[in-house]
Fold this protein.
Amino acid sequence: MSEKTKALKQKECEMNLIKKELHLLFTSYDIYLKQKVFIFREMDLYKMQVESLKKRLNEYSTDVGGTKIIEDLTKEIAVKNGMISDLQNKLVSTSGQKEKISLSEHSLKLRENLEQILLENASKEKTEEFLSLQSKIHLLKEEYEKEIDGYKKEIFNLKTQNKLLENKVIKYEKEATTTEMALLKERELHQKYSQIQTDSFLEMKVNLENILESKIKEISKIKPEYEFLKKNSSITAAKVDNLSLVIAECKKNWQNYQSLVYNSKNITDDTLIDELGNLSSAFDSMSKSYNGLLQRVDEYFKKIEELEKANLDLSIQYEEKINYLKTFTSDNSDHFMIYMEKLLETNELRLKLSQSESNLLNLRKKYEALILELESEKESNNNLNIKLIEYRRRVEEKNNEMNSEKARVLESENTNKLLKKIVYSIVEDGSADVFDELEKYKKLFRCMACDVNHKDTVITKCMHVFCHECIDKRLKTRLRKCPNCGEEFHVNDVQKIYL
């Protein structure tokens, strides 16, 4: 029976662990709300980025050679708008799931949600897991039914043992009454024939004393069995009380836990996977935009090198023409008009140089802005990579938690069923009769004089059993007579017994 009490204590510990897990589920729900707030912030950031890109479009639309940049920026704006719409859809889905969580309180609705999830995610792995769980549940049910049958058999054996002991007690009570009657007859014969003490009467007395001693020995043998039954009956009563309390707590915890398990399942299976998909798509779009910006930077750098080469060529041509004009004017003063035309050409070349220099400055500014954009895009890519790693880790943790929670839920279901069956079996088999029998046995072990203390001393003359305190009081007050039969006794006639 000690092993059974240990098993009950273990089950109580498991119920405490389930309560702790429920607390952890509440904390995970708070984390889910924080993630929602984080998504709102990301939407605001994306909207700010879209506005900044629109401003840049307006700025670049004024430039003549910025058509490619405008097209790229429009693509980026479209990508950002798509990301915003994805986040809005994600929020709509999370809000819909929250409404489902508030509505999914009953077990039938939870089963319907499970069937819908299985139909939507009709994959072989999940169906195999579901079938394996069902097989495990079936095996656990069979094991617990076997244990319940064992408990029922033990209870039936205890009842039969109680009945046998009751019959033995009745027999020994009858024998004790017969012995008492025999002793009374012997006393009467002793009083009547005190003067006639023959050998036949002495032999009868010796035989009766031997019979009494044998009966006392048999009673002393039965006493440990009676104490064992008494202890078992008290243990069963305590178990019934503990089981009733545990079942009440299990019902409450099971209702709360079942709703939270399926809600956490919906959260982990739907929202986190959607978030991972959105993050991966966002990461791909950002990587594409990053590669486009790198190509643009290379193109601008090539244009700058070409313009610098063109400026060098123009400056060389300008110097050559000036030298030519100088030599020409010095040698030929008649060709003044030609000189003036060449001067006009040089002025035009100077204007072109100034324009090319201004274009170079503009391109350098654009190049620096693109470099800043590249740095910001690198930072955003790093942040997205960190988020992806965190979400993957969270998904793995949630899946592990869900698997452990599934196993624990199955264990709690089986323990609840087992405890219910044990309680119903005890109630149906008649535990009230057992308590009545226990009270009867308790009365047999109480002192007949005070009805408070247990019997622990015997008067050897009359063989009546009382408590030590009652007999001490009679010895002190010198009322040395048996409270039951009135037989006189002395200090030497009192002996201790251990029931």
Observations:
- The first helix runs from residue 2 to 62.
- The first strand starts at residue 457 and ends at 459.
- Strands lie at 457-459, 464-466, 494-496.
